[in-house]
Each structure stands twice: as C-alpha cells, then as structure tokens.
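Lab manual, section 2.4: Encoding a predicted structure.

Procedure: take the sequence of the chain (153 residues), apply the prediction step described in section 2.3, and record the output as structure tokens. A sample record is shown.
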Amino acid sequence: MHCPFCRHPDSRVVDSRTSDDGLSIRRRRQCPECGGRFSTIETASLNVIKRSGVIEPFSREKVISGVRKACQGRPVTEADLAVLAQAVEEYVRQTGASQIDTNDIGLAILGPLRDLDEVAYLRFASVYQAFESLEDFEASIDQLRADHAKDRE
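Recorded output:
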C-alpha cells in the first residue's frame, strides 16, 4: 500500500479491526518513510455476472433499489431494506463464490422479502419469475397460504 502522503511503496499495519458486521477489515497503517498514519478498508471482492455477460461489483444499493420498487406503498422502512440487503449479501458471500449470477441474487432476495412483506414479495416475484398469467399469481398465493397453514400447526 503506497503512502498517500509521500508515495513510499510500503507501510506497516499498526492496528486491525473488523467493521461493517465482519464483512470488512479496517487497518490503521503507518509509513516507515514519513511517519504518516492512514486507514485502509479491505473487503473480499464479490462480482455479479449480469444477464448481458457484463461483470460488475456487488452492490447493496442495487439490491435496495430493486426491492424498493416492489415495496412502494407498503409499510416497509429504509432500515428494513438495509437489513434485507445485508442478509442477501451475507447469504451470497456464504456460498464462497467470488462471482455470482444476477439470477442467484434474485433467488436470495425472495426469502427475506417474503418474510418482510408478502405483497412486495408477490410484486418482486411476478417480475423476477416472469409471471405470465393469473394462474402464476394464484399458484404463488396458494403456496403462501399453505405455508401459513403449516405455521399455524
């Protein structure tokens, strides 16, 4: 790591701490040349392979913006969306893959969104799973009802 003050090509780590719920490490560094101190944040890279083949870094903000559309007019707060995005990222990172398809991210969103708000879940699923008819909605609603019946038992 180059020193941001004198551009010396080396630095030593003075202190390390996990941050952001354990998903990154904050390191306090010191330059042996000028003595300047600075911080770095290290995260494991996670890339998303889009349908077009383009590869880009995973973004919680993109998860939030996609789910926010399904949650319009629903009693879902920004904090709820942030927790959902964090859960999705944790699930995706647990796979151990450094690259993941957008399709897999969509699947990872469905579970937490269903727990958060069933109407938003149906909206998201209808677009994500390409519902083509009323029967698709009915099948999804029937599945929700069956799951509710299991929960009551």
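Check your result against the sample. The radius of gyration is 21 Å.
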